[in-house]
Design goal:
Layout: E1 10-12, H1 23-41, E2 53-57, E3 71-75, H2 85-91, E4 96-99, H3 102-111, E5 117-119, E6 141-146, H4 155-166, E7 172-177, E8 190-193, E9 196-199, H5 205-214, E10 217-220, H6 229-236, E11 241-244, E12 259-261, E13 263-269, E14 280-286, H7 288-300, H8 302-316, H9 321-334, H10 338-341
Parallel strand pairs: 1-2, 2-3, 3-4, 4-5, 6-7, 6-10, 7-9, 10-11, 11-12
Antiparallel strand pairs: 8-9, 13-14
Helix pairs in contact: 1-9, 4-7, 6-8
């Protein structure tokens, strides 16, 4: 049976530090933005002792079994087609699972058909505002890639295509924005090599918005996403986007709002900084020739690309953290098992 908001006393169990980098930076953003929005809609408890429910947002590897008295929610994701055994064992300890996209939820349901599983999409803040763009002949046409230093995010395909086709054209520019551990040579620096700019700084949202606004086209040839937040951010600014049409981002991205590229399924690993997982899974490898073709098309048909960018903005602006929080609270209300646990 369902519950009212007043019946829910939620303990927020995740505490990710702002010093996180790479994929963990994504979990940090997800955790802080969603917690803020939930707090505005529902008073959170501060201790496990007073709670009826506890929520954790993290990779399954770091999730541990929680007190039996509480209804435990694990908000997590995986970007491959098969869940590693270690992840599966940890996820089984949660009472309810939350996925950031329909694609991830369907993956979870194959492993946990009896477990309550809900979809709560990420949000994009209004600060990623729409800006009008045009093809400016007085400065290089800039392609932008933003992501964690993880091959899954597609930077290898971007670099290969750039070196083979675009590096010789000085009227073009590639801006690569990433983050990494402090011991990386790139960390904290901005370096230019020909018409390629490598940016390893940890930037504020305001600085990130400026990068989106300064770019002419966003590249996202990902091999798999739980949601695809950087793509959603780029879309909200009206930036024309080229992306693999696969996995979690299919909840908001398709050929009516951007340029899709073909992919081939193959074996790969879903890894991130600090992870010890080495088990292979199937992933979607973007076709480099298709990426190059779409990049050249955008250059030659920028008016068309800008129309798609505007359509993308109108679609993604509905994805807010307030909407995410409302969806989460609705899920908490619908799951009434806590009444039995406390009786």
């Amino acid at each position: 049976m369902g519950r009212s908001k007043s019946d829910i006393k939620l303990f927020w169990g995740t505490d990710i530090k702002i010093t996180a980098s790479g994929n963990q930076l994504g979990y940090y953003t997800h955790n802080t933005k969603l917690k803020k929005a939930v707090t505005l809609q529902h008073a959170l408890t501060t201790t496990e002792e007073k709670a009826t429910d506890c929520l954790y947002i993290m990779s399954p590897e770091f999730f541990l079994k929680r007190p039996e008295r509480l209804l435990t929610w694990l908000f997590t994701m995986f970007e491959g087609t098969t869940i590693p055994k270690k992840y599966e064992e940890r996820m089984a300890e949660a009472d309810c699972l939350i996925a950031p996209s329909t694609w991830v939820a369907e993956l979870f349901r194959r492993y946990f058909p009896e477990k309550p599983i809900y979809v709560v999409n990420h949000g994009v803040e209004k600060k990623f505002k729409f800006v009008k763009r045009k093809f400016q002949a007085d400065r290089p046409f800039r392609f932008l890639w933003v992501g964690a230093p993880n091959p899954r995010k597609g930077y290898e395909e971007v670099i290969v295509v750039w070196r083979e086709i675009f590096a010789k054209y000085r009227e073009l520019e590639l801006y690569v924005k990433t983050t990494g551990p402090d011991d990386w040579n790139l960390s904290g620096k901005v370096e230019r090599n020909g018409n390629v700019i490598l940016d390893g700084r940890k930037v504020t949202d305001r600085e990130l918005v400026k990068l989106y606004h300064r770019a002419n086209c966003f590249l996202f040839p990902t091999r798999g996403e739980g949601f695809g937040l950087t793509l959603a951010e780029a879309m909200r600014t009206g930036l024309p986007c080229i992306s693999t049409h696969y996995s979690g981002l299919t909840d908001f991205f398709d050929s009516t709002v951007g340029y899709t590229i073909d992919h081939q399924m193959g074996k790969g690993t879903v890894t991130f900084i600090g992870d010890t997982l080495e088990e292979e899974t199937e992933m979607a490898f973007p076709v480099p020739e298709e990426l190059a073709k779409k990049m050249m098309h955008v250059i030659g048909n920028y008016g068309e690309a800008l129309k798609l960018g505007r359509a993308a903005h109108h679609r993604i602006k509905k994805f807010t953290w307030w909407r995410s929080a409302s969806t989460l609270l609705k899920a908490l209300q619908e799951e009434g098992g806590i009444d039995v646990r406390l009786s």
